[in-house]
Amino acid sequence: MNGGMPNAGLSLEQAPHLLVPASFFLMVPLSLLLAGAILMHAGVASLSHPWNPQVIALTHVGTIGVLLMGMVGALYQMTPVVAGTPVAAIRVAHGVHVLLLTGLVCFVWRLLGGPAFAMTLAGYSLAMALLGFLLPVGWSLASSVTRDETTLGMRLAVASLAVLAAMGLLVARGYAESGFPDNRFLLTQVHLTVALLGWVGGLIVSISWQVVPMFYLAPSPAKRSRQAMLGALVAGLILPFAAFAMQPNNDVALSPTRLAAVAALPAALAVWFFHPLLTLHSIHQRKRRRTDASLLYWRAGLSVALLLVPLAAMASLADDYRWQILFGWLAIWGWAGMILHGMLTRIMPFLVWFHRLTPLIGKMRVPSIRGLLSQGRIKTGFAIHLASLVLGAATIVTQSDILARLTGLAITATGFSLGSSLVHVLHLGQRHLLQHPIK
Ligand code: HEM
Hints:
globular, 0% strand, 13 helices, binds protoporphyrin IX containing FE, disordered N terminus, Cytochrome C Oxidase, Chain A, mainly alpha
């Protein structure tokens, strides 16, 4: 009765308590409410110029509140499977959760007009949160004897998180009135490259190799393609650092910042061209033909990914700032956000089933994983997410204030839809357990 899904290599002894991933996953809809509020309050200023504080605030509600929270929850869950041992000192995860939230709130507070010390507080909270996460999870992944491409990709993602955080914290000092570093723009360029391609891309790509075959019975990409993608990803993450050795110049066409962006091309092609093409093809060839609403998210997210290399080229070549904002919007909310949203609608029912219902198997009738979250709910979430994505893109193109506020409303609705789905699944699992306590 498990919906035909294996236990994903998990055993109850190794997996963290359900509360660990679930508490991070619940931060995703909460952050969407915050993003919606910023858009409704600040209007088009939050989708206008890349250096607008409101834009940087909204960006990080998306990248830290939505993506990082969801990905950290997923990594706490997946690392024991890959490493074969539980993550050490797992209780620290609750502290990581509180510190990440504090860091995010203070970061946003400062950028929306709060005092400078809010950014100092954000810096310390985020640094401590990331140390508390990176040390045990990084250690588990590094000491894993598994050498497959998924493990390598996860290691790359976690290492990228450490690097991007160090760079982000360095630039953030400027907002704490401690002065921006001289090479602020180059640091920011490499920060966002390592963040989007190494951390987000590395994780989406490597986890897709595990979950797409498992959830949809789709063929895995050939080992050689996986190795080539990882190789290109590593090359495109290392090459931009060469720009730090260049002398600053006044030639805009050949500035270190521009060259750093171009040097990331191998990684961008791996993550935003080859990976989506191969994954869309493999989904098309899947053996499980039953309709599965979570596939809508994969298809949409991967299709948006195919737009990102041309958009990144326009963002770095054209003078019009709207290209940069459109690129960021589609990368964060259209590609990564879409895939994360879809995965949460699969992972949460699986985890609740695994933690709450597997102990009851053989003792009573247990609902299937699919029975915990209806396809209708998943489709509704997708429709609202897609509407907010299109509205946001229209806002960026037209710079219309009213559209920006409508986008905020649609993001808020996405947050409510996802939040109610996650709470619904948790509630069903809890109710089952209470009705049939395990003796
Ligand atoms: C420790 C966590 C982080 C800190 C402290 C941080 C800090 C910053 C700061 C201060 C800026 C503005 C740069 C400037 O004004 O020159 C920035 C920009 C940016 N960051 Fe982060 N960041 C963090 C995490 C992330 C993550 C996880 C991502 C993506 C997954 C990300 C993506 C971006 C992007 C795309 C921009 C450019 C925003 C724009 O052009 O408006 N950051 N970051």
